Amino acid sequence: MGLAFKQGNITMADLDLCFTSATELARRIAAGEQSSQEIVANSLVRIEEVNGTLNCFCFTFPEEAVELAKAADAAVARGDAVGPLHGVPIAIKDFTPTKGKTTTMGSKVYADNVPDEDAQVVKDLLGAGAIMVGKTTTPEFAHDGFTHSPLWGTTRNPWNPERTPGGSSGGSGAAVASGCVPLAEGSDMGGSVRIPASFCGTVGLKPSLGRIPMTVLPTVFDNISHFGPLARTIDDAALFLDIAQGPFERDIMSNATPIDIQRPVPSDVKGLRIALDMDLGIYHVDDEVAANVEASAAALREVGAIVEEVDLGWTSDCVDAWLTYWNVYLAAFFEQHLDTRRDDLDPNIAAMFDAARGVSAIDFKRLEFVRTQQWFKLCDVFERYDALICPTTPIPAPPADSSDAEQLGMRPDGKMNSSDMTLVFNNVAQCPALSVPSGMHSNGLPTSLQIIGHRFDDLTVLRIGAAVEKTRPWAERRPAM
């Protein structure tokens, strides 16, 4: 895997540098205040320090990264024009195709898969000057909200290695939270950016559908899939979005009108009307998670936002519709391996494929009826409010060896036990959803607030996130390891 290396005289990572934002690192490099070589070397040393415990990287590229950092510094010395991430180390999820570099999707079936082209999001980030130092772990085919796979084993949470970092972008979440990189790419079909952000105490954005081009699937007509950033700050998430947003003609879902993203992201929320639904009518929410969401709502009120409780009226049918859609989605792309490679597949994946084979085309189409009624109820709220807030996950990070299926279940009070409150918003994928830290649980794990915006209104969710960041700052919080 290439994870053993030595970087000059560096024997321990500079933690202050590890936890410096991508925006600030890019500024220092462009100004000649600090070299990309120093920053990249520090990143590689930090990976070496933590990866044996966290298992957040499945591949690193130290020699290549060092050479690219030298070239980045030479460009600055020559006075060349540089991109907004020039010389900054980043990580790419092992689900996302990278040209000439193995992309396994966490599967033994694809253990030797080497794409011949980068995903557009990778092209954009590298084109902005970023240096890919490694690829991060994902559960097989990015299927779960927990990151473990038959190929790469279990990925762990920097705040407590006995707990999960979430999934499916769990490696990216753990890499950012532990200071290996300031910015990492993830993909989100049911919360796979936001869940790791919540469990790891970082920022995670599911942009509105089509904001960032998605052409890595066998279909460009899918309507739940997104690329998005895992970052330490709102400004870094906004920088990622600005670099990676379309339009991109090959993605027929690509939004034709780019948005003007200001940085620093404005944090003025005075007069904004924000709806709060703590459980979305569906979920059981841990008391401390709820208290931290309430504290975030109070902070928004203190800076002029109008935050009022609402009842969306959603039901567990919304969850069931997504779960069925997800089974069929994955099966459409990978079910061909079930009969020939079943023993190599995660047993949960095999069960999902078996279930998908029993779904009729008519029943599959009728899932849209549930999604439509879900959307109409959200529309009713959005007629009166600029955004909706709720927890990102109703609990702090569960044990690392658990799974989504083990967490799901109905309670006697009619509420649902679950490890996420994200997948229902992929049913209405045109609405952006942002996860930001809301506080800490008494068990020492982070909790998070989820901010959902009107269709294609990514700017408002970033604005509200910036207000939370300003009033309840989280940048100084670091895992113990």
Topology (SSEs and partners):
Blueprint: H1 15-18, H2 22-31, H3 36-54, E1 57-60, H4 62-78, E2 89-93, H5 120-127, E3 131-136, E4 148-149, E5 153-154, H6 170-177, E6 183-188, H7 194-200, E7 203-206, E8 226-231, H8 234-244, E9 273-276, H9 287-302, E10 306-309, H10 317-334, H11 338-341, H12 347-356, H13 361-382, E11 387-391, H14 404-407, E12 409-410, E13 416-417, E14 433-440, E15 446-453, H15 458-471
Parallel strand pairs: 2-3, 9-10, 9-11
Antiparallel strand pairs: 1-3, 4-5, 6-8, 7-8, 7-14, 11-15, 12-13, 14-15
Helix pairs in contact: 3-4, 6-7, 10-12, 10-13
Word description of this protein:
This protein has 481 residues and is of the alpha+beta class. The protein has helices spanning 15-18, 22-31, 36-54, 62-78, 120-127, 170-177, 194-200, 234-244, 287-302, 317-334, 338-341, 347-356, 361-382, 404-407, 458-471, and strands at residues 57-60, 89-93, 131-136, 148-149, 153-154, 183-188, 203-206, 226-231, 273-276, 306-309, 387-391, 409-410, 416-417, 433-440, 446-453. Helix 3 packs antiparallel against helix 4 (62-78) and helix 6 (170-177) runs parallel beside helix 7 (194-200).
How would you briefly describe this protein structure?
With 481 residues, this protein is an alpha+beta fold. Helices cover 36% and strands 14% of the residues. The two termini are 23 Å apart.
Comma- or semicolon-separated keywords:
three-stranded mixed beta sheet, globular, 15 helices, alpha+beta, single chain, 481 residues
